[in-house]
Amino acid sequence: MNNQKQQKPTLTGQRFKTRKRDEKERFDPTQFQESIVQGLNQTGTDLEAVAKFLDASGAKLDYRRYAETLFDILVAGGMLAPGGTLSDDMTRTEFCLFTAQEDLETMQAYAQVFNKLIRRYKYLEKGFEEEIKKLLLFLKGFTESERNKLAMLTGILLANGNISASILSSLYNENLVKEGVSAAFAVKLFKSWINEKDINSVAASLRKVGMDNRLMELFPANKRSCEHFSKYFTDAGLKELSDFARNQQSIGARKELQKELQEQMSRGDPQKEVCWQEEMKKANLSEQAMIGIIWTSVMSSVEWNKKEELVTEQAIKHLKQYSPLLKAFTSQGLSELSLLLKIQEYCYDNIHFMKAFQKIVVLLYKADVLSEEAILKWYTEAHLAKGKSVFLEQMKKFVEWLKNAEEGNPLDGRTVVRLWSVSHKSNTDCVFSTEILKLCSNLW
């Protein structure tokens, strides 16, 4: 028998000591703000010294955690409360963007401060964009002078690529738009942006983020017209911006017209030329622009045969149906040339149509859509480089025939083509003069 007492089990636990680095630090921007404000007060208006101070302070202060506080101080002199007012219980500095001189040169110098700071601390880039978005929403809380400085700075930053044009979405805030704050701010912003770059750079940046078609939204709904936009910005000295907006609206109108026309054609609805002429006037489009829309819609409304030998026949049959519509929008020589260039481009881009070019042109010539003058003009000087050698070779005999018909044939060239076509298809006993038969045989 074992006289030894059995040892009783004991419950033991292990205390885990939280590492200092894992402790959750309380968000308290007070000390951070005091450090930044003190440094800015010491550097004063010397922006080179400000940039050096901010560069050095990033190693000691937590920029990542207090990015919003940092940018608030640099712009407004202290932390901003909701609405754009300065927090009363926080230390402020008089050396910030809002207290600086209101001129482009000073704003360019401030832009350099922000540029250097963000290049040095890349993680601040996103926070800076968010800050600009927030500041734009707070515009009503700032004075007119403060808005002007912020607008100039924002335009310079956009021109330099420091921020994305997506920040402009804040300007579409209903209250800012209603009170005219957005439009007035946009004038100053775009002026400084175009001053740094040009309208092409502005247009590219706006397109990149889908803002190119939203400029009208800077105005209330009852003033959201191309005429009002154009007058407002032209009077403010920004004619290039108003021209850009007008062009964008025209592009939008074209897309809508093309979509509607294509849908009708796909359904097989009869096309009324008069209705589309009215639509063209409403959209303020030229006949040249409209013929391009019609051609694209006509060629997009059908599924084409993949076999080259069959697609030409299909195209001729399809285009015959819409030749009256095409004819209604080729009353001018420029419109005819525009259509010829569209046909050339289409046949080049769609390889199955390469051999169909000449037959399409002859069909439209017979249907009074294209004139001798337009075809000859296209052939001699107005053609595109795309597929030039192929298409000119295809058209060579037809063009020679047109020239001969113009010079020596008593009958109209189009009449000869129609007569040839009838006799060729019906194989009847139509009697032609030797001269006409000779002309027709030269055509193909």
Automatic annotation (TrEMBL):
<dbReference type="InterPro" id="IPR003307">
    <property type="entry name" value="W2_domain"/>
</dbReference>
<dbReference type="Pfam" id="PF02020">
    <property type="entry name" value="W2"/>
</dbReference>
<feature type="region of interest" description="Disordered">
    <location>
        <begin position="1"/>
        <end position="28"/>
    </location>
</feature>
<dbReference type="GO" id="GO:0016020">
    <property type="term" value="C:membrane"/>
</dbReference>
<keyword id="KW-0804">Transcription</keyword>
<protein>
    <recommendedName>
        <fullName>W2 domain-containing protein</fullName>
    </recommendedName>
</protein>
<keyword id="KW-0010">Activator</keyword>
<dbReference type="InterPro" id="IPR043510">
    <property type="entry name" value="W2_5MP1/2"/>
</dbReference>
<dbReference type="GO" id="GO:0006446">
    <property type="term" value="P:regulation of translational initiation"/>
</dbReference>
<dbReference type="InterPro" id="IPR057397">
    <property type="entry name" value="HEAT_5MP1_2"/>
</dbReference>
<dbReference type="Pfam" id="PF25504">
    <property type="entry name" value="HEAT_5MP1_2"/>
</dbReference>
<keyword id="KW-0805">Transcription regulation</keyword>
<dbReference type="InterPro" id="IPR016024">
    <property type="entry name" value="ARM-type_fold"/>
</dbReference>
<dbReference type="GO" id="GO:0005737">
    <property type="term" value="C:cytoplasm"/>
</dbReference>
<dbReference type="InterPro" id="IPR051245">
    <property type="entry name" value="eIF5-mimic_regulator"/>
</dbReference>
<keyword id="KW-0810">Translation regulation</keyword>
<comment type="similarity">
    <text>Belongs to the BZW family.</text>
</comment>
<feature type="compositionally biased region" description="Polar residues">
    <location>
        <begin position="1"/>
        <end position="15"/>
    </location>
</feature>
<feature type="domain" description="W2">
    <location>
        <begin position="247"/>
        <end position="412"/>
    </location>
</feature>
